Amino acid sequence: MRVYIKPGVSVLKEKNSNLIHFSISTSSVHKIYELTSEYLLFIELLKIENDVNIIFKKIQNEFPNFSKEEFLKNIEALRLDGILIYERSVPKEFNHQNSERYKRQVEFFGDINAVEINSWNFQLKLKKSTVLILGLGGLGSWIAQYLAMAGIGRLIICDFDNIEIHNLTRQALYTTQDIGRLKTDSLEQHIKLINSDVRVDKVNIEIESEEELITLTKYFKVADVIINCIDYPDINTTSSWVSKICMQLNKPHIIGGGYSGHIGLIGPTVIPYKTACWECISQKYRDDLQHDDSEILINNRKSSGAIVFLSSMIANIQSWDCINLLTGLNTPMTINRKGYLNICDFSIEWEEISRNLKCKVCGKK
């Protein structure tokens, strides 16, 4: 086993003292330890040697009573503190080119999750994962790009639309040369230029009813996460359709949200029978309104203003939640809550939503 000072960690020893300062730049954390002579020697040896067994023998030559069991225990404690890392072997599934592509991303994974000894395992989980994206507009196109860049193994992309010139101000990857093409065809081409290892499956179908969505059940079954970005007839209606299928299949899903003017909707992320489901959220709104038979007096479906900075920021957050779901790296930030992002001041107002144990959909289990 080999051990190293973690990249981004600076080590400083106080003069005439056994105090060692570790400055961790990746988390802006500063830690101070008072080390015994054995461990001061250990830090010195790390400059020239990384094999744990060789280091131990050199320390034991000077300190015969030095315990290897205690030594290994303290190395692990320093690793969990974000100061040391073990040698990270690249899984056989990644060739040299891919190891170069993802190495800084893998370092980042290790920075924010010290529990996993080899952070390449997070990247391997992404490579083995499939995500179904429903809708390739201002959110779905960005999410597809972000996941492809991150190294997702397979994307199933669903849309029926052709690219129009007004799409180019807020939707990712499409160009003027793509106007008139199917979004699925264009997106597949551009994703392959970003990351040729991503498998892309295209579904060209218009979803205007729950029955039409059910025809895609085979894609729901093979996906590890489903992300809904279909905004017609509206995001609430399509989320209800998507969530119903996902709950039946026990599939984690993310509501891609939407945007109107300067406010963007983020989440929620649903893990069936563990977190609040879409029906829990809908019931909460009905309870808040205190009536279920509201009459719509005006339904103005004219499109509101939209700008790329807002749509891409929402997609960024949703993509990160998707990666956390797939890898277990962190808890998704939109579990049991949804956010309202104000592009004017970058504030996010969070609305907490608890799982309703009496929910007619998820309360049964």
TrEMBL record:
<protein>
    <recommendedName>
        <fullName>THIF-type NAD/FAD binding fold domain-containing protein</fullName>
    </recommendedName>
</protein>
<feature type="transmembrane region" description="Helical">
    <location>
        <begin position="131"/>
        <end position="157"/>
    </location>
</feature>
<dbReference type="GO" id="GO:0005737">
    <property type="term" value="C:cytoplasm"/>
</dbReference>
<dbReference type="GO" id="GO:0032446">
    <property type="term" value="P:protein modification by small protein conjugation"/>
</dbReference>
<dbReference type="InterPro" id="IPR045886">
    <property type="entry name" value="ThiF/MoeB/HesA"/>
</dbReference>
<dbReference type="Pfam" id="PF00899">
    <property type="entry name" value="ThiF"/>
</dbReference>
<dbReference type="GO" id="GO:0016779">
    <property type="term" value="F:nucleotidyltransferase activity"/>
</dbReference>
<keyword id="KW-0812">Transmembrane</keyword>
<keyword id="KW-1133">Transmembrane helix</keyword>
<dbReference type="GO" id="GO:0008641">
    <property type="term" value="F:ubiquitin-like modifier activating enzyme activity"/>
</dbReference>
<dbReference type="InterPro" id="IPR035985">
    <property type="entry name" value="Ubiquitin-activating_enz"/>
</dbReference>
<dbReference type="GO" id="GO:0004792">
    <property type="term" value="F:thiosulfate-cyanide sulfurtransferase activity"/>
</dbReference>
<feature type="domain" description="THIF-type NAD/FAD binding fold">
    <location>
        <begin position="116"/>
        <end position="355"/>
    </location>
</feature>
<keyword id="KW-0472">Membrane</keyword>
<dbReference type="InterPro" id="IPR000594">
    <property type="entry name" value="ThiF_NAD_FAD-bd"/>
</dbReference>
